[in-house]
Amino acid sequence: MRRPPVVSDAVKRGLTPLHRRQSSQLLPRTRMGGPMPWIIAIMVALVVLAAGGALALGTLADSARGELAGAATVQIVEADPQTRAVQVRRAVAALSADPAVVSVRAVPEEEIEALLQPWLGDLETGGVSAVPVPALIDIQLTEAAGDAELARLSGLLESAAPDARLNAQSDWLGPVFGAIASIQWLALILALMLAFTGVTAVWLAARNALAANAKTIEVVHLLGGDDHQIARVVQRAMRTEAVLGSAAGFVIGAAALLFLGSQFAALDSGLVAGGGIGWSGWVILALIPLLGAFVALLTARLTVLYLLRKIA
After folding, report:
1. In this structure, what are the phi and psi dihedrals at residue 30, rounded to the nearest 5 degrees?
2. What is the DSSP letter of 3?
3. Residue 46 banded pLDDT, cuts 50, 70, 90
4. Structural contact between residues 133 and 113, judged by C-beta atoms closer than 8 angstroms
5. How far from 110 is each of 13, 126, 129, 133, 203, CA to CA, in Å?
6. Is the pLDDT of residue 3 over 70?
7. What residue intervals traverse the membrane (predicted)?
8. How far is residue 116's CA from residue 155's CA, in Å, rounded to a whole number?
């Protein structure tokens, strides 16, 4: 038995919009007027900030390691100035003759006193001069200063300068590198928490959309529409919000990173100046809004399919 023409035409007219762009009009289109785009924008901006900070800290640590690779410092800890000066000359001579040492530089006393002056006071008041200051010798090795190489050089200095202490300069920044690694892990955890929060927000929005349009969805089912078609309708309605929110969040996060970068660059500090985000880092950051929009659309689709199966 054939379906009456009037009913057949009505079914066709009802199902046709589900295959067109106009199908998204079955659900309210809030665009930037609703909360969802702003929620996505805030989440993406915070993730960009966290990821950008982690990348900048990684660049800073790599730069510091590169500058300090193979660098070591010899301290001559001797209170008597004359004995200290003799040991400095002997240590410089012994290190200069070693093939593993590229350069040797005895740091002048005036330079050491200038470094300590902000903490120990002015020379004229007897601040620095009243405190015995060890002599310093900066050396550069042919390769990174390992424990075995440092032990060998320390043995070489024992006879020339008994009061000499040899340390790799990278050891002094070991706690700093550890703190940087901890901050990077915290940034990763923060990004994952923000991603989970964003997924939860999209899930709630999709659930509310189904609840608010239950009558419309029931009519679509009566007209022959299946769950996947309804999911596509919700996905189309969410697409504009997800794309606009992700793009706005990236712009906000990138602008904040550029502003903070200019502020740190103005400090003109040797350690801070080594930080920054290279082109590869910006490429990684540019993937965040794309990933955010994709996750939002996928979450909306899976949520709708799950709830429709549960209702059925």
Report:
1. -90, -25
2. P
3. very high
4. yes
5. 91, 14, 11, 11, 66
6. no
7. 38-61, 183-206, 242-262, 282-308
8. 29
What three-state secondary structure class fits 202?
helix
What are the structure tokens assigned to 166, written together?
A: 């040899």
DSSP-based helix, strand, coil % in the chain, nearest 5: 75, 10, 20
> Which has the closest alpha carbon to 48: 283, 302, 306, 300?
283
pLDDT computed for residue 149 by the predictor: 78
Checking if the pLDDT of 311 tops 90, the result is no
84: which residues sit within 8 A by CB, 6+ positions away? 76, 78, 134, 135, 163
Distance (Å, whole) CA 120 – CA 117: 5
Q: State how far the Cα of 205 lies from the Cα of 300, in Å rounded to an integer.
A: 8
Structural contact between residues 22 and 236, judged by C-beta atoms closer than 8 angstroms:
no
Note whether 74 and 164 are within 8 A (CB).
yes
| 118, 55 contact by CB (below 8 A) | no
Question: Model-level pTM?
Answer: 0.69
- Which residues are within 8 A (CB) of 10 and not within 5 positions of it... i.e. 6 or more apart? 223
Burial 7-22 (b: 16+ CB within 10 A, else e): eeeeeeeeeebbeeee
Q: Bridge-partner residues for 167, per DSSP?
A: 73
| CB neighbour list of residue 250: distance below 8 Å, 6 or more residues apart | 44, 45, 48, 285, 286, 288, 289
